[in-house]
Amino acid sequence: MEDFFTLQGEGFYQGCSAYFIRLGGCDVGCVWCDVKESWPAEAHPQVSIETIVRRTKESGAPIAVITGGEPTMHPLEGLTSMLKGEGIHTHLETSGAYTITGTWDWICLSPKKFKKPESSSYGKADELKVVVYHPSDLAWAEKEASRVGPDCKLYLQPEWSKEKVMVPLIIDYIKQNPRWRISLQIHKYMNIP
User: Fold this and answer.
1) Sheet arrangement for strand 2-7
2) Does domain 2-189 have CATH number 3.10.450.540?
């Protein structure tokens, strides 16, 4: 769908220089999705892996973040292999709804109630990011956290349109459950992609 040089706006690598590669196609159907235009894969032109890797390398970014849509709808071995061959770290942002392919330095699993992750996704997650849209999402986050490994970083992220209501709730929750951290979408505060 698009690729661009920016800063990672959320999660463990928040604030780091990164080249984003957004792949078209998604059938997860998050009501709050801020890139619904990514859902129909056929609406976006195909771009060769070589072109994507060249653009990433030319940016000078040390990290390539593969996101979507839902990127795991696509085979990702070729893309990650070429990126790693250029010395670029590969990061994945996924709901885990499909089998994770490719070679990854970091996997952010952001499970959704609308289409649950494949069970194999949990063991691969370096970071679990749960979007909090409703107070009931906190209990659901705990269930999801029980499925990842002990070293997985745990994040609660307020859904952007509900931020004013959810941030105080998340703060109180983390005070009582300090294994969690908050993830704010700082790219939206800074008005960058």
Assistant:
1) 2-7, 17-22, 63-67, 89-94, 106-109, 127-132, 153-158, 180-182
2) no
Taken as a whole, the chain contains a residue count of 193
Cα distances (Å, whole numbers) of residue 24 to 45, 46, 54, 160 = 9, 9, 19, 22
The answer to whether the predicted template modeling score (pTM) of the entire model surpasses 0.85 is yes
- Per residue in 115-171, pLDDT tens? 999 999 999 999 999 999 999 999 999 999 999 999 999 999 999 999 999 999 999
Residues of the chain scoring pLDDT < 50 = none
Distance from C-alpha of 40 to C-alpha of 26, rounded to nearest angstrom: 7
State how far the Cα of 88 lies from the Cα of 97, in Å rounded to an integer. Answer: 25
List of residues 6+ apart from 113 with CB closer than 8 A: 140
Residue type at position 39: W
- Do the Cβ atoms of 67 and 20 come closer than 8 Å? yes
Q: Rg of the chain's alpha carbons, rounded to an integer?
A: 16
| CA–CA gap between residue 60 and residue 19 (Å, rounded) | 9
Sequence spans of domains, the chain? 2-189
